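dumping this here before i forget
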Amino acid sequence: MRLKISLKSEKSLFIPFNYNHIISSIIYNKIGDLELASELHSSKTFKFFTFSSLNIPRRRVVNDGIISKNGSVNFQISSPNEHLIKSLVEGHLDDLTVNFKNEELFVEKIELLAEPEFKKHINVRTISPIIVRTKREIDGKLKVWDLTPADQQFYNSLRMNLIKKYNHFHEIEETDHEIDISSNMRYVKRKRIAIEKDNVKTFHRAFIMDLELMGDLNLIKFAYDVG
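structure:
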């Protein structure tokens, strides 16, 4: 299931380039089921939701970020967990304001988006950056390494991650799923993403790109829902 959340400021809005943590905070604060919000926030495994990059219809890029000229922004939230989506709708309706970096924004619209027609062979474009990491031995030490779409391991890791999430969500042990993920590399946009954890900021290579999915319809639909 997928929601589109439209927000509006009474004036122009400044948005830093690395705003993912701001959107993540808005989502956690808007989950109406407080027990579910706490469980997701503290989870060390899969969280089973994702959110898109911000869509800023009227924008101006400045040195340290983006300005929404009319204060309007929107983004999408996606999850296979229907209870989470329902709880997010309730949370936004209970309080029609959100805190965006100490700016109060009004919740202008909440839309439940219609699902596309799923087929066993589809071409898609990601609406948020993908980070795929592995561990490699460098100078005798194992280090986390960001993979790129030019590396076949990038797609192998995406496939295995999807299968693990699917099995975990449905509480099954099956590992032999028919699914293949690849790309024709016609559209690949690299982004530099900052991730903060335990007051330490690290930067990673991420990609918005076209992907080709072939295989089990259930896995393809799950990939759409879980990102």
